[in-house]
Every structure is written in structure tokens, then in C-alpha cells.
Amino acid sequence: MLNEEDYVEACRRYKDKRTKLPERQRYHAVILATQGYSYKEIGRILLVAEESVSGWATLYQATGLDALQNHPLWGGEHGQRRLLTAELAELAQTLTVEAMAGTPVGSGWSAKAIRKLIRERFEVSYSKSGVRKLLCELGWSYQRGRKLYIRRSVEEQARFMLETEEVLAKYAESQEAVVPLAGDQSKVYLEGTLARRWNPVGRAAR
Q1: How far apart are CA 134 and CA 128, in angstroms?
Q2: How far apart are CA 22 and CA 52, in angstroms?
Q3: pLDDT tens track for 140-166
Q4: Residue 139 and residue 201: Cα distance in Å, rounded?
Q5: How do the domains of the chain map onto residue ranges?
Q6: How many CB atoms lie within 10 A of CB 186?
Q7: How far apart are the first and last CA of the chain?
Q8: How far apart are CA 196 and CA 112, in angstroms?
Q9: Among the four residues 62, 129, 141, 148, which has the most C-beta atoms within 10 Å?
Q10: Read out DSSP for 122-163?
């Protein structure tokens, strides 16, 4: 498996505590393979699938030891593939024309929802940092959205707005000096969120 020079270097990288654990695991796997362990045995030792060990070995044999390093554009830290150019274009289109569950189109996406979408559509698991890098590459930014009506039907929202407008109109006619406060009713019906969401740069969340 590893030649003498790569074996020494793989051991050095494996022992280096600054190397992230998933990357160290890949070095450990090829070191064990060089020592004569089977992929199945290595999988049991490292608590990973035999296919993962085989994939790491193939990476090394095809490209060399550096192929086992964490790539800055990988979705995560476990060596999963990066989305292809066509998949990136499809993802960008999907995020633009579709909406996160329970929200209108254009209100933005949470990182969690995007990770779920990528996993379901493309069978690739991206880490939180991987999604951030990916979205920045697509020209998206993390923005604070406007308040959204959630959990209430359109009819209930309209009724609440009508009742609120009637009360405000009454006070306006009386010309009394009042300070409107957000009471329990507004908390129930106007369950808004000011959470940040991902949107294209220059396009504010609705």
C-alpha cells in the first residue's frame, strides 16, 4: 500500500494533534492496510464501513497521500465528494424558486434546511462550515429576514389584522395619547421571526 516515504509521512500526520480527526482516521486506515490488515479488519478497528476504507485506499493509489487531506471545498470532513458543477447550478435554481418548508418563496433558507435539501437531492452530506463555504461561492449571504406569519392560517391572520386596525382607528378618532403595547394576542397571532437566513447577495429576505 504505502511506500516507505509515504508511510513515514502518514505516521507523522497521524500523530500530529493539529490534524483533524477525520483526516487522521484516513491516514490510520492506510497505515493499517500497509501493515497487512484487511479492509474489513480496518473497518472494525476504526468503526467505519469497509467501503470507506476501500475508498480511501483507492484515493491514495490514484492520487497519492495528499488525496487523504481535508479539502477546503469539501462539504465536510469525511472525504465526501463535492457537488458537481451541474448539481451546484441545480441547487442554486432550487433555492431560488422553491421555499423552505412553512415559509414563502424568497423568505430565505436556514443552513439546516439547505443541508437537508442537499442530502435528499444529491446524496451528499455537507457540514455546517461546508454549507457556508458553498453558499458564499454561490453568491449568497447570511441576512436578517423580516417578520413572517407562521402557524396561523391566512383567514386567522386577516381577522387579527382587521381587529387590530379597528382598535387603532378608534384611538385615532378619540385623539387620545396612547402607547400601543404588544399583548398576549399579538404574541399568539403574530409569531414572527427575526432569525437570519441565507439569501442571494443584494436580495433582502421578504
Answers
A1: 10
A2: 12
A3: 888 765 554 455 677 777 777 788 788
A4: 6
A5: 4-68, 85-144+194-200, 154-189
A6: 14
A7: 55
A8: 12
A9: 148
A10: H--PPPHHHHHHHHHHTTEEEEEPPP---SS-HHHHHHHHHH
Residue keyed to cell 394576542: 185
Give me the residues paired with residue 141 across strands. 199
- Cα distance between residue 80 and residue 123, in whole Å: 10
Q: How far apart are CA 62 and CA 177, in angstroms?
A: 78
pLDDT at 41 over 60: yes
DSSP secondary structure string, 44-113? HHHTS-HHHHHHHHHHHHHH-GGGGSPPTTSSSSS-PPPPPHHHHHHHHHHHHHS--TTS-TTS-B-HHH
The predicted pLDDT at position 74 comes to 53
Residue for cell digits 505516521? 11
Tens-place pLDDT, residues 53-104: 998 999 899 889 988 887 655 554 455 567 778 888 899 899 989 988 777 7
